[in-house]
Write a structure and sequence with these properties.
Elements: H1 2-26, E1 32-38, E2 41-42, E3 46-49, E4 52-54, H2 56-68, E5 70-76, H3 79-88, E6 93-94, H4 102-105, E7 108-110, E8 115-116, E9 119-124, E10 140-144, H5 148-159, E11 164-168, H6 171-180, E12 185-189, H7 190-198, E13 205-212, E14 217-218, E15 221-223, H8 227-243, H9 245-254
Parallel strand pairs: 1-5, 1-6, 10-11, 10-12
Antiparallel strand pairs: 2-3, 3-4, 6-15, 7-15, 8-14, 9-12, 9-13
């Protein structure tokens, strides 16, 4: 009887222990979903490879999500549709190499900057006589719609109305137009232009002149007043920088 009693006691302890573990596991609430908007034609920041979203921005937002307990879901939208989508609540935030500027800051709240960028002029390899934005006056110039490159094009046209400015839905389309000879130059962010001339545009496109708008910084945009999410994103950025994870991601894409 003593042996049987000990066996029963042991079995009960095991059952109770297992039940306790199940209850503990059941206490783990599902991660909150974070719906992130991007424009996935802007390598090396965001692009689609083998059906998956990849790039510097994609790894940064996933690292932030993991740090803060979010389940990150990526949605691809046109660049000029991203801020309206976060304003309407269709997405929670935007990470898409979006430059922090005064006009955008009236519509959304930005995280602390996570990347320093700048603009550069790209031309065909055989092009001469273009070294600055002044040299683009009266020329055919292209940029991606809604970007700071597009704003630079508008400023050039404001100084010389004969300048022919053409806007494209993606920077890849702008570069294709350049290679076809449809435009004389493309104004775009330095890191993306550098990636293009090292890959697709190798031996056909070059950068000219100096980097300008060097105070341009990228931020993650959230809906105005969404202080909780903004705080979580900033906290996540701080944590991945402190842990060295940010530097690892940066080195992967830019070194």
């Amino acid at each position: 009887m003593l042996v049987v009693g000990m066996l029963i006691t042991g079995l009960l302890a095991t059952v109770i222990g297992c039940k306790g573990e199940q209850q503990k596991a059941g206490d783990n609430t599902p991660k909150e979903k974070l719906v992130v908007g991007t424009e996935a034609t802007f390598p090396p920041f965001e692009m689609i490879e083998n059906g998956e979203y990849t790039g510097f921005d994609m790894e940064i937002i996933r690292a932030i999500g993991e740090s803060q307990g979010y389940d990150v879901e990526i949605k691809h939208l046109g660049f000029d549709a991203l801020i309206p989508a976060v304003q309407s609540g269709n997405i929670d935030c935007v990470i898409a190499a979006v430059s922090i500027d005064e006009e955008r800051a009236k519509k959304v709240d930005f995280s602390q900057p996570y990347f320093n960028a700048g603009l550069i002029i790209a031309v065909k390899q055989e092009t001469t006589g273009i070294e600055s934005t002044k040299d683009l006056q009266g020329k055919k110039v292209a940029a991606q719609v809604g970007t700071t490159g597009a704003e630079a094009c508008r400023e050039i046209k404001a100084k010389d109305a004969s300048t022919d400015v053409r806007y494209f839905d993606s920077v890849g389309e702008a570069f294709m137009e350049l290679e076809k000879g449809g435009v004389d130059a493309v104004i775009n962010d330095l890191p993306v232009t550098l990636d293009y001339i090292q890959t697709t545009g190798k031996d056909s496109v070059k950068m000219v002149g100096d980097v300008f708008n060097t105070d341009e910084q990228y931020g993650i945009a959230v809906k105005k007043g969404n202080s909780k999410l903004l705080n979580d994103i900033n906290k996540g950025l701080d944590e991945i920088k402190a842990s060295g994870q940010y530097d690892q991601i940066y080195a992967k894409w830019f070194k």
